[in-house]
Amino acid sequence: MSIAVRFSAQLGGFALNASFTAPARGVTALYGHSGSGKTSVLRCVAGLQRAAGFLQVGDQIWQDDVAGTFVPTHRRSIGYVFQEASLFAHFSVRSNLEYGWKRIPARERRVAFAEAVELLGIETLLSRSVAALSGGERQRVAIARALLTSPQLLLMDEPLSALDTRSKAEILPFLERLHRELDIPVLYVSHSPDEVARLADHMVLMDQGNVLATGPLAEVMTRIDLPLARDEAAESVITCVVASHSERYHLTYLDFVGGRFAVARLPLLPGERARVRIHARDVSIALEEHRDSSILNIVEGQILALAPLDAWQMVVRLGLGPEADVPLIARITRRSAEQLGLAPGKPVFAQVKSVGLAD
Amino acid sequence: MNIDPQPIWLTLELATLTTLLLLLVGTPLAWWLARTGSWLRQPIGAMVTLPLVLPPTVLGFYLLVALGPKGPIGAFMQELGLATLPFTFAGLVVASVIYSLPFVVQPLQNAFEALGSRPIEAAATLRASPWDRFFTVVIPLARPGFLTATVLGFAHTVGEFGVVLMIGGNIPGETKVLSVAIYDHVESLEYDQAHWLAGGMLFFSFLVLLVLHLVTKRWQARQA
Lengths: 359, 224
What we know:
The complex is a heterodimer of chains A (about 350) and B (about 220). Chain A is an alpha+beta fold and about 350 residues long. Chain A is built from nine helices and 21 strands. In chain B, about 80% of the residues lie in helices and about 0% in strands. Chain B has helices at about 5-35, 40-55, 55-65, 70-80, 90-115, 120-125, 130-140, 145-160, 160-165, 180-185, 190-224. The termini of chain B are far apart.
């Protein structure tokens, strides 16, 4: 099951030419600068905006210009969360939630009313008027309202961008829960690296109306031919499982196929998943395993690719694990690369100075 | 002194019927004007506003000509075997609808424009069909606009004079409305009767506008 998108249109200042396939599960981030056409793609998927092309979600074709098919928005099984909550001002919170829910035949409801309310933590808001809600509360109600249509596909257009830092922090855990507990694929438009690193499994990288790359998040973020890995803030995302804690040193050990990371004690149970973010500038490369170093995290891998970044720096893509399929990027000097004789296929050790937690 | 109540009832009947027709015609027209990207928007918008600036006698004159037995519409109606409209109550209704059109269309158009497309889009993503969206989202959110349109359309029809005189004349029970009755009384130097009717209208108009302001203020307070 997948989502196949092919849209082209002339939009104001630029040409939209977006074509990609994304898995119909997990969170797919539509990522790019503002004005790259991400929101337009999302609106076309919802049918709120017209572009020439083709759109298939699972086994349903929602748009096919050749066959003359265009399913109007209200007949597409979508949930849409706008940048601003866009709640109905003339209804209470409960009536807002019920608006879509009532329009779904009972046998097609897969998300129960109480379930959505509990998931977003809005039990106490139900009888309130929309005007009495904070920004974060509004957006939680909007997300629950969208979920209650039991959509086949959830579309989120920068749902956090209109909120202040505190409200963002308030909503992110709910989005992560949604991701864990409901099996609804999500297309998530964002230009925030933090949100993408925390939430996305898959990425569609957009630039000026074009799709630059599509693939698993860890893959796209570390491709040295793409701007993400060449950015000053370039980073890798690795999904780990909590192995154990060391109470003595106040550390948590996180395992992944390529080895083990030690991070400051986390409030997680062994077996729980944790995603870590590693900045390219925090990774250095050695030919031997230096155990006589203060660096805690040293993992084995091999060079997959490397390319010059500027006059004095290189970006290096490593593959960790026995299959070398966990990508990690490092930023090192050209001098070091030359002295170590780095070349694709060479086995190396990556020394990671700092491992951050994504979620 | 005796006051003939017939013009009062006739006026209320005319204004009620006109307002209902105006809401029926004005709502889709205002919706179209608020949402269309067509080049026809400006010319049609200007035509709808014409009665605001035209002297009522000009409007009445053209209606009289057009609806009369030799006018294009009148001739067509005669061909269909229908009576012509001038100097009938039906003629007054048609004229009033045209005369009061901007007073209904403009508040509605403003309300629809202020609404924006976002609530409608949100409703569409929540499975509401276009009609469903209109009745459950657009109309409730544009309620203050509907109230203003209704009150202005009604009050303006009650107060019309020039158009009535041109196309309706002064037939008791058929086209003799309040404003014409007042004019009649003044012509016959019956100032007492004129005072009663004119004062009543003044009071009525003030009351209507006062209620309009109070209700609008309450709705705004509730939605803020």
